[in-house]
Amino acid sequence: MDRNPPRGIAGRLGPGGPRGSRIPYRTAALRPKTMHPDVITVDVLEGYALLLTFANGEKRIFSVEPYLDRGIFRELRDPAYFRSVRAISGFVSWPHEQDFSPDTLYLKSVPATLPKALP
Fold it and tell me: Which of 11, 55, 94, 97 has the fewest CB atoms within 10 Å, counting from its CB?
């Protein structure tokens, strides 16, 4: 029986992580839960803003405007492309892989104020 562990990826990354590491090896399937609720629906508002509905029922408004001059987010300046946003797996995402995490969306958004119904 061979007592030497295999070399290569199988030898370096196993259930306990890299050799000598006390940090467990994590895969995408095992990612920790976010500390904020997932986004379940997203609606586009004027001025590069999004109306988000979170899994806890909260509705919040997130402004994308501060991100429009940053790298991959520049493409979101096209109004037609901006409207192609979708809520996927708790994230807000566009077709060319621009996305925002539930934590960012929750922390950087403000509660939506809805008009009160008339009597």
Answer: 97
What gap in Å lies between CA 22 and CA 67, rounded to an integer?
A: 37
3-state secondary structure of 72: helix
Nearest to 58, CA basis, from 81, 38, 85:
38
Domain hosting 43: range is: 39-111
Question: Is 57 within the bounds of a domain?
Answer: yes
Report angle CA 79, 36, 55 to the nearest 5 degrees.
Answer: 70
- CB-based contact 117:71 (threshold 8 Å): no
**Mean of pLDDT values over 12-29:** 47
Q: Does the residue 51 lie in any domain?
A: yes
> Which pLDDT value is given to residue 113?
83
pLDDT tens digits for range 32-50: 554 789 999 999 999 999 9
Establish if 106 belongs to a structural domain: yes
What are 103-117's pLDDT values in tens digits? 999 999 999 986 655
